[in-house]
Amino acid sequence: MTALLEVEGLVKHFVAERSLFGRALAHVKAVDGVSFSLEAGKTLALVGESGCGKSTVSRLVLRLIEPDAGAIRFEGRDLLSLGADALRKFRREAQIIFQDPYASLNPRMTVGQILTEPLALHSLVPSAQRRERVAEILRLVGLEPRLERRYPHEFSGGQRQRIAIARALAVEPKLIICDEPVSALDVSIRSQILNLLRDLQDRLGLAYIFVSHDLAVVKHIADHVAVMNLGQIVETAEADALFAAPRHPYSRALLSAIPVPKPRAKRSRIVLQGDIPSALNPPPGCRFHTRCPYVIDRCRSEMPQLVPDGTGHATACHRTSELPSSAAIVPSDGGFSPVLEKLVAAFSGGPEAARGGGVSSLGTDPA
Question: Is there a single domain that holds both residue 173 and residue 306?
């Protein structure tokens, strides 16, 4: 199957310090050679610690910021060669949902105006039919059309995120980048939003890039996972395969840090030693070697390449075949929060539940 999105060797360095005459003296290597692909209707999760570059990758894909090097292809088109008019047309096909529902909506515009703006900008619907289209979009995300006259401050956090999703859906995109879309929400509301996103994907054939540090959420929604560390992808795999048997020491450390609500459960916690390297001056060789418990001399001098094993699992580690089994590291429940799991199941029930059934059972989405 041809990939909807292909990213190759993506690089973005930000200038951190300039001389008196404007010459760059130091760079933050936010993204340093990232490559991945995404099929239509699938979800790729980018995970890692704060500052690893996952949000920067999402903005580079949409050309909200320009890369220094690399290639981005969408349905075979080179996005980096698009002019202003062609780039605006591309905006219809790729949208983003931001992390903070309080900051991502214009407080001076009503919900109706927020949703009408993209329809008018792209000339998608005649002006006489826009109100009807806005009502349809609101119902799609589980909100009543009568709410279109309200302003963002009149809504709860969960409702605002539904509005943000509705704004992304207004232009009928093929790809939506979800940048930590549920991290600011309560667990009960989080489950509703996750079910809504899954239902919309099934109904509309959407592809997602899901940026998150919450591995429980990632396991629930992702088809594939790419683990990032200091601007580079160190492991990629199908979600089930990665959660069952992580191979890179960094992935294992992330999974071992997941709290397990079983006090007597036997598991080996990986406590990383040493300091986190700075993106201003990444260490030579493997960028994880300063904290890796399995480091050897080769790791300090030679950067490992992301090597696939033929099953869709790729790892950037010199010692992948030598590492001990991860069975004692991975939580018995795969790190999936039982509370979130029960809430997701409670609010699942097909399209009606995702569109609003869960909301009515809690009143009006009390985030």
Answer: no
Res. 144 pLDDT band, cuts 50 70 90:
very high
Question: What percentage of the chain carries pLDDT values higher than 70?
Answer: 86
- Check whether residue 210 and residue 283 sit in a common domain: no
Query: Nearest-CA neighbor of 102 among 152, 138, 168?
Result: 152
* DSSP-assigned letters across all residues of 264-332: T---------SPPPPTTSPPSS-TTTTT-TT--HHHHHSPPP-EE-SSS-EE--TTGGGSPPSTTTS-T
pLDDT value for 266: 63
Domain assignment of residue 329, yes or no: no
The one-character DSSP state at 337 is: -
Number of domains in the chain: 2
Provide the residue range defining the domain that includes 192: 5-222+341-361
Answer yes or no: is pLDDT of 340 > 70: no
Question: Would you state the structure tokens that stand for residue 355, as one six-digit string?
Answer: 């569109």
Closest CA to 314 of 253, 231, 219, 224: 224
